[in-house]
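#onboarding

Welcome to the new folks! Below is a worked example of what a typical request in this channel looks like: someone posts a single protein sequence, and someone else replies with the predicted structure as tokens. Don't worry about understanding the tokens yet, we'll cover that in week two.

Example request:
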Amino acid sequence: MSTKPKAREVIRKLRGLPTSDGAGVRMTRVIGTSQLDNFDPFLLLDEFRSDDPNDYIAGFPDHPHRGFETVTYMLAGRMKHGDNQGNTGLLGPGSVQWMTAGRGIVHSEFPQQVEGLMWGFQLWVNLPASDKMTAPRYQDIQADQVPETTLEEGVRARVLAGKLGGVEGAVTGVATEPVYYDLHIDKGRSYDVPLPAGHNAFIYIYAGNGVVGAASTPLERGELALLGHGDSVRVAAGTEDCRLILVAGRPLNEPIARYGPFVMNTREEINQAVEDYRAGRL
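Example response:
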């Protein structure tokens, strides 16, 4: 007997909290706070958005990571990165970097402008225990390499990861089988987005406003919606055009031991990460 597909609904919505990181970069932390510590496999979501260089110009000097992945998606502005392995790159508007820290890396990120809007997201995605000590790697993807598709009139998508509308995302080979869509929905339009049924998924509205699910839950700019289980979600623009990110990943259901830039499974592994960093072994 076939099972009727189940559409997802909003089970919780919240706003992020202002914070600063790096050398004083101001941002809004949406996941990774006292109100939402994590949403397996997602450990952190920051939105940085400012046209005041004092909010961002100091950047993120050298800092270590181990045991998870960082995903940087730029909407506006330019960010230069480098690491202790000799890798360098420049992220411009519309580009994405999926960095697998694995067993360890020390890197830096610095804005490459002193005026104009700096806007984007950083997402942290956990790695399964079996992959936490894998070799580090980057997927640096320029804006013109991110597939874009018109799903129907008035509904467009940039597909960073996953598959949507017959288009394969730019990022591949990630353990949590992620979905990461940047959706642009014109006022008066809606779309049912298919999602892997077992994944945890969230929506974040970053421009305009929207309506989610059959229950027509309203969402304003700056609001995060956690979604219940199901194999699709209906998204619609609200009283104006809407832009949002829709992100989903396979939950790991593993213990999380976390200390700053290190995310492992046990406190002993955290202690080892700190010792390795201090000894210059990352």
